[in-house]
Write a structure and sequence with these properties.
The protein is an alpha/beta fold. It has a single domain, classed as NAD(P)-binding Rossmann-like Domain (Rossmann fold, 3-Layer(aba) Sandwich). It is 47% helix and 14% strand. The chain contains ten helices and nine strands. The strands form two sheets. Strands 3-2-1-4-5-6-9 form a seven-stranded parallel sheet, with helices on both faces. Helix 9 crosses helix 10. It is globular and about 50 Å long.
Length: 260
Amino acid sequence: MKKVAWVTGASSGIGEETCKQLAKAGYRIVLSARNEAKLIELKNQLPHSEIHLVVPLDLEFSENFVELVKEVHQQVGRFDYLYNCGGLSQRSEAHETSLAIDRRIMEINYFGTIALTKAVLPYMQAQKSGHIIAISSIAGKFGFYLRSAYSASKHALHGFFESLSLEEAKNHVRITIACPGKINTPISLSALNKDGESHGVMDHNQETGMPVEECVAILIKAVNEGKREILIGNKEIKAVTLKRFLPKLFWKVIAKQSAT
């Protein structure tokens, strides 16, 4: 039986590339995002396209996730992996960002992600196996310009999934938290500005970042090795070590970095 991997955020970026690499490796993929047309297009490009399943969902509206997961399980039979790749970024200073935007980013990045995780978890518990992957960010390790709500939502994921990792060890359910740095994906295009609209710009940090293919290859290798956490990127990920061991120097260095 082929292993089943459910991937959110599958219509672009890290989620899309994860679907491609897992399908090539022989996995059966459940593809989820808001854009059903893009999901269908991607599904048709994957090896053995007939075995994969398109399940549109919006992380902002998670009320029906328990029933949705039940329906998907009836079709695929098991959940071996849940790749939580869906999310929304930000490009606005905290003082100019309304609380409504803060709440929306938190709803999508945190509550939507843990809602789907909690809906899938009972099936993994029953199997006594499973692996849940949370795509955090280097902004989940420290705050950064124009990312107050985004960074907060990613910090929250660490607290939840680190706790879950301890609790579910008895059920043989593993957790991996991935913290990408500057990766060449279109994440900045859909990032919310101070008005709650799409930023609409491919930032320099994304254009010059690590190729998404390389990022996902590192991610999947870390998952296969059972790593609890993985930093993915180029020299920017060294900032995490710098903050831990030389915090005064870290704050001097990070203050000089470009926000975009």
